[in-house]
Amino acid sequence: PGDRLLLYSDGVPEAQGPGGAQFGEERLADIVHATRGQGLESMLDRVLAAVEAFTAPKPPHDDISLVALEILAAEHG
Fold first, then answer.
1. Higher-confidence residue: 68 or 77?
2. Over the chain, what HEC string results?
3. Are the C-beta atoms of 76 and 4 separated by less than 8 Å?
4. Angle between helices 25-34 and 40-55 (to 10 degrees)
5. Which of 28, 35, 55, 74 has the smallest CB count inside 10 Å?
6. What span, in angstroms and rounded, lies between the C-alpha atoms of 51 and 14?
7. CA-to-CA distance for 19 and 33, rounded, in angstroms?
């Protein structure tokens, strides 16, 4: 319980900032790590907001796809 799986398109780590630098997988991993105690929706919102802030003032040049799964505790009853 609590384990998560995040699937993302290449548009996330390859998003480019104004200087041409890429968002990168390390930055993505830092956000996922920082949002461990939050719900999946909050984690996905933070990733998307970070990518959009990184590429500002322009929107990301490629599509951004995110899918997250979380293993929940089984209920016994």
1. 68
2. CCCEEEEECCCCCCCECCCCCECCHHHHHHHHHHCCCCCHHHHHHHHHHHHHHHHCCCCCCCCCCEEEEECCCCCCC
3. no
4. 140
5. 74
6. 10
7. 26
Give the tens place of pLDDT for each residue, 22-65: 999 999 999 999 999 999 999 999 999 999 999 999 999 899 99
Look-up of token digits 């799964």:
69
CA–CA–CA angle 46, 47, 53 (5° rounding): 85
Using CA atoms, how far apart are residues 43 and 77, in angstroms rounded to an integer?
A: 31
- 66 vs 59: CA distance, rounded Å: 16
